[in-house]
Structure prediction request, 146 residues.
Amino acid sequence: MNSQHEHKSQKIGKLLTIRRKSKGMTQDEVGSIIGLQKSIVSKVETGSCLNFNTITRIANALEVEPIVELKPVKKADKTIIEYVMTAIIEFAKSHDLTIREASNYLNRFRGIEFLTEFYDVEHTLSFNDCVNDLTIVCQNNGGEIK
Prediction:
């Protein structure tokens, strides 16, 4: 299983764990409701079991409905890539960083994610406004650059 699948199955498991605990139930109790051993419930909650039938049975026991949706994969757009690269360079200049430092910082504190998600709006702004937006987004995500 690749790391992306592991991450998503862990997220599903975490959500089921939170729901189970909010209902004041143990793994044993959930398992007995649906006829599974505690160890299977535990595997789902830790993300090491990605069997949709089992997940659905556990979710039903917890009175929730797991929803699966398909989202189109975003393809790399040369225009967006060029814009992001220029924004990184401008951010680096503005904060007296190397391009590598700026890139690492923006990646760590979700600035690059912000730029790609809101490209439609951000690319219409000046790079000064873009750098200000990136600074705020990164600060809101734990970054300390002022």
